Amino acid sequence: MRGHPARKRFGQNFLADAHYVAKIVDAIDPRPGDNLVEIGPGLGALTGALIERAGAIHAIEIDRDLAARLAADFSSAKLALHIADALEFDYASLGPRLRVVGNLPYNISSPLLFRLAEFETQLRDLHVMLQREVVARMTAQPATPDYGRLSVMLQAKFRVTRLFVVPPGAFQPTPKVDSAIARLVPLAEAKPRIGDDAIFSRVVAAAFGQRRKTMRNALSALCDAAALSAVGIDPAARGETLAVADFVRLSNSLTA
Description:
This protein has helices at 18-28, 45-54, 64-73, 109-117, 132-139, 149-155, 197-209, 215-218, 225-230, 244-255, and strands spanning 14-15, 35-39, 57-61, 79-83, 98-103, 123-131, 158-166, 171-172, 179-186. It has ten helices and nine strands. A seven-stranded mixed beta sheet has the order 4-3-2-5-6-9-7. The protein has a two-stranded antiparallel sheet with strand order 1-8. It has two domains: 8-190, Vaccinia Virus protein VP39 (Rossmann fold, 3-Layer(aba) Sandwich), CATH 3.40.50.150; 197-255, Helicase, Ruva Protein, domain 3. By secondary structure, it is α/β, with parallel strands linked by helices. The chain is elongated. Helix content is 35%, strand content 20%. 38% of the residues are buried.
């Protein structure tokens, strides 16, 4: 790892397999002029390949030692380096049609995805590498074991696709889990109209707070059985059986 010890507090596992670097970059298909930002470039395995195809990119790196290495390896004309926490970074500052790429730290993957979703109107797409189980949750359909809050919150804003699995051996140090690449493309005009994002988020969180609870019980602080029936939702149903459109309809009725 070129003399850099992986830091557990930053969730560092560095992609080191040239075959998978090439496969990921081919999936992203960066072009000159693309507005590209890499989250957590680490030792720069993907960074160099992205710059080769796009010409210049942004990168967000929280580890100052790694940032110093990257600054030494790539000129500022090719790599605009932001030493920052990706969870707090203002992605709007990078401009429109933003393409996000990242081997996301597994310990903050869900909050980071929620953070990126806040900027969905400025995003062109996201290509992220995460634990395979997290990608399964992102792409899950209703009435399946992996379907939950993450599925609904992301699918309300993005078309989410799992591209391929990346085995543990592609990383240094070797993680104990498989990883997978997910592509998220904003729904744009096809996005459901959500009256109030905060209420929608609250409804979804409550529905999945305790999976075995019926909607009547899970949402008792927000609405009663009659309000559920009024929008075509069985009060005895569980949240995991409802489609994204059901959550949108319910939250919009509560907003109204």
